[in-house]
Records
---
Amino acid sequence: MAVVVVVINMRLLLLFIFAVVIGMVSQQIHAAVLQDDRVDVLYHSYNGGGMDIDGPAILLRKKARENIAVQAYYYVDSISSASVDVMSTASPYEEERKEVQLAFEYLHEKTIIDVNFRRSDEDDYLGNSISLNISQDTFGDLTNISMGLAYGANEISRNGDDFFAEESKQYTLNFALSQILTRNLTMTINLAAIADEGYLNNPYRTVRYVDNSQPSGVGYQSEVYPNTRNSFATKISASYFLSYRAALFANYRYFSDSWGIDASDVELAYRHPIGDTFELEFNARYYQQTQANFYSDLFPYRDAQNYLARDKELSTFNDTTVGFSVTYLVPQQYSFGDLRSEASFQWDHLIFDYENFRDPTAEGGIGNEPLYGFSANVIRVLYSLYF
Amino acid sequence: MFTCHKASTKQLLISVFATIFLLSLSGCSSLGIEPWVKPYERQNLADPIMSTSRHPVADKHVSHVYEARESARGAEGTGGGGCGCN
């Protein structure tokens, strides 16, 4: 098995190097440009299902030269959790997650190569990853193709247990093809293959099983997940310019993995300007998935099968999102140093309906509780300054 | 048997990626097709209202919220990972 993985990873690396070389050689002489310098400051808030998460984020992007850009990103999640998982077998908790990203972009004629380093740090989880991506305009700039590789290594610990130390790794291969189809329509197809290996459980979560020896009639044991997971995702997106100057966006994604989960989501968005200073956007999204083949809300007895899960994110469920945003294009005389800037308020409302995950905190008897569901509100307030 | 099946699936994915990527690099011009939307015909597509990456810092947050609550991931163009998902 190890030999097979090594051989495949070597093939991936060789393929990527080959693609980079071909990309550099086959391009025509016609300069592209890097994106504008900018700084974005964001406040985000998530409230729903017993969880409150909020915090700031900042993104700074600056060109060092005409063909080199540096981007830094800092993000904080302040989490206060009393979710249904936590309330059924544990106590509410608070924690903080900090994420830092540093990216470098290099432009060579029509090719952009970027390298991104990422670090996510929590009390009980440390994730590091690196990604390499190459994109190129071709076919009279009607087509853009990109391909990327990412590698992540995670260290998992468990608060209150100094002897618990696990690791996981993730390999990702991305491909994207964007095509201008008409004067008003572009389409993009994204493909991603992800391979996870190592400890993929949540170290705190348990499954429940029928146990008549307990007064409550239910017993608990730790989840057991497979040590590998292979996933594949395909997304098709379209952007359409409406003749009265508005934009319509649509995308569809299909996902499947080796745990037996099939998922799909579809999203529509409509963006409409009001005068020269405001833009409104309305969006709606629907998502559905089937359960992992080792998931059960209530197992018949202890150690009922090799792999055990009761994570509601591995159950069969659907969720719906509706949202809107308003963006204010700040007139230059009111902006910093006469620079172009904009402020945006975005709100999303999410509704989750679980089809085989029951609320263990509700009445009804073991295995007969009502099915769980919840709604959440997500708010983003951000300011972008271009310089 | 299971290992062989997983290996062949990965090899198939690699082959699909490689084929699509290399065909894309060759461009449609190798098939005798010329670019049909000229640069001066792209002002609508270049309008900022058509930008799909207008607020990248907000896009990262949207992806993070969904990745923490759903099993599907990938094919989005933004990073993810460790997240207070309980």
---
Amino acid sequence: MVLDKEYILELLQNVTDPEIPVISVIDLGIVRDVIIDEDSLEVVITPTYSGCPAMLEIEKEINNALKKKGINEFKITTVLSPAWTTEWMSEEGKRKLKEYGIAPPNPTNPEDIECPQCSSKNTQLISEFGSTACKSLFKCNDCLEPFDYFKCH
Amino acid sequence: MTDLTKYNYVLQHADNCLILGQRLGEWCGHGPILEQDIAMTNISLDLIGQARMWYQYAAEIQNEGKSEDDIAYLRDAWGYRNVLLVEQPNGDFAQTIFRQFLYDTYSCYFYEALMNSSDERLAAIAAKSHKEALYHIKWSGDWVIRLGDGTEESHNRMVAAVQELWSYAGELIKPNETEAKAHEEGYGVDLSAIKEKRDAKIREVLTEATLEVPESTYAHEGGKDGRHSEHLGYILADLQFLQRAYPGLEW
């Protein structure tokens, strides 16, 4: 089998975060590189938060996605540097997050968070820490819905 | 083992993260309100994740075929090199907050400096952990102010917490032999260089919290060299039970 980087990236586009199943490991910026050297394949990933329990699951899912397509010879390498940042999240990823009901990271104005339900900016922080390490809790003062905010990191 | 000093240096920080993470984990399901219960366990998770990065590196330096888990689960108390602060009991919420604040004021500046380490791996661990530490100090610092400048009850509890834990603040920034040597060799942090910034931050937050900064500079020490308070044994009994009772057990 001839390995092609575009093809591998496309496969990985279908591997989603187990905690937020609408966003892929590519959209999240977890996959840092796909290195193909003749017959060898290396997928380079980086953890989001150092204690994120989803990382192990994500590695397993990448493993499964490749094997399902008959790719058995590869290795998955984890790198720590440069440290993951939400700036690597794709625009497509941000759009999908909002659709799913999670406010995407807003690096230009972290104080100005838009409600993913009604798009109002009249929102307030409830707690810096939410259901997972990457999110904090907000509520909308207009539609009154509570929501998760994927915080800048 | 090729480099015992570096191994011990890495262990000190791995153990700080693990023991403080374990302590915060004890709050799970017992927090004063749900959001703060979640905050403490989130921070605990970050710390245990950081501990893993450190232990993985320790295992590589040791190069005896041991895993991160072997190092965490199969050493007795005197093999542990964490500072005495992190093994102190949770006490009430104020005491947990102040213990966290003392650790965060240290770890923020420590990781900031370690990002310039000559050892690339240490610099990478530092860059990753620093981002998380900044988020933690925002939380613990806010709570010191909120409780200190809160009701009479919360203020009194913060005063008691400061009194209880102040004598553990010094060990964090007083280098032991390992840290002095690590700094000499270029990969370790010069603790004397971060002391001033740390002390200023503590002063700034305590002042805003209407709390007095104690004048005493007395510091309990010994944790970094394996001499611990009685608390560590109990923590390890809890933490290590499964691996001791069922060696090699996996989930």
